TrEMBL record:
EC number: 2.1.1.222, 2.1.1.64
Entry's family note: Belongs to the methyltransferase superfamily. UbiG/COQ3 family.
Residues that, per the record, bind S-adenosyl-L-methionine: 42, 61, 82, 126
Domain of life, per lineage: Bacteria
Protein name: Ubiquinone biosynthesis O-methyltransferase
Pathway(s) served: Cofactor biosynthesis; ubiquinone biosynthesis
Organism the protein comes from: Gilvimarinus gilvus
One Pfam short name: Methyltransf_23
Keyword annotations from UniProtKB, A to Z: Methyltransferase, S-adenosyl-L-methionine, Transferase, Ubiquinone biosynthesis
Cross-referenced InterPro entries: SAM-dependent_MTases_sf, UbiG_MeTrfase
Gene Ontology MF annotations: 2-polyprenyl-6-hydroxyphenol methylase activity; 3-demethylubiquinol 3-O-methyltransferase activity
Catalytic activity: a 3-demethylubiquinol + S-adenosyl-L-methionine = a ubiquinol + S-adenosyl-L-homocysteine + H(+); a 3-(all-trans-polyprenyl)benzene-1,2-diol + S-adenosyl-L-methionine = a 2-methoxy-6-(all-trans-polyprenyl)phenol + S-adenosyl-L-homocysteine + H(+)
Length: 239
């Protein structure tokens, strides 16, 4: 595994899309409602497997800081990185209003990996891999950024007909949980594909679990046996 400074590992259309939506990041009933609904479940998943209090955590693709704040509230020392100016400004403003000390920086994961390898106890990269041209480059960077013995968490969308029907057609066009065009089905990643990226990055997969949405209760839960749509992957960096 080698790390290159891939500062161009982004899709400008994707960045522009999230720039336009930046003011909605903290509206729990707005465009990012699904993120707010799944965030407690994601934070619990991470905290239960690698307790975050007093841990040095990096969130790659932090957006407006929803996960960063949840982890900081649990006592973590949090850094969030993103390439979007507007989401980062929203994240900084909201952290100040929440009286949380979170370090936000505009930098790519690859560039930070070259500058600060093996600096973080936990690295998270959630709902981001399906938005970049080269997800494996991000996985490699996360592996470089985490300390030996540390933990890395990814979440993304599976690529199959059910995921297309629920995450694209259902969420964007029928239930209107997300803006139309939020996801590009071709960029979805099968668990087997992400698992292979993780192995090539010298990480060890500990667990793959599904994030299941219940439209009646408008809530998410963790499933150990259904990774057909949204899923989380927990990896470990050998000591």
């Amino acid at each position: 595994m080698s790390i290159q400074n891939q500062s161009d590992n982004f899709d400008q259309d994707e960045l522009d899309k999230f720039e336009r939506l930046a003011d909605s990041w903290w509206d729990s009933s707005g465009e990012f409602k699904p993120l707010h609904q799944m965030n407690p479940v994601r934070a619990n998943f991470i905290d239960e497997r690698s307790p975050v209090a007093n841990m040095n955590i990096l969130d790659v693709g932090c957006g407006g800081g929803i996960l960063c704040e949840a982890l900081a509230q649990r006592g973590a020392i949090v850094t969030g990185i993103d390439l979007g100016d507007a989401p980062l400004q929203v994240a900084k403003t909201h952290a100040r209003s929440s009286e949380l000390d979170i370090q936000y920086t505009k930098i790519s994961a690859e560039e930070l990996a070259l500058k600060q390898p093996k600096q973080f106890d936990i690295v998270t990269c959630l709902e981001m891999l399906e938005h970049v041209p080269d997800p494996e480059s991000i996985v490699n960077a996360c592996s470089t950024l985490v300390k030996p013995g540390g933990h890395v968490y990814f979440s993304t969308l599976n690529r199959n007909p059910k995921a297309w029907a629920l995450a694209v057609v259902g969420a964007e066009y029928i239930l209107r949980l997300l803006p139309k065009g939020t996801h590009d089905y071709k960029k979805f990643i099968k668990p087997s594909e992400l698992g292979a990226m993780v192995r090539r990055a010298n990480l060890q997969t500990q667990e793959v679990a599904g994030l299941i949405y219940n439209p009646l209760t408008q809530s998410f839960r963790i499933s150990s046996n259904d990774v057909s749509v949204n899923y989380l992957l927990h990896a470990h960096q050998p000591a």
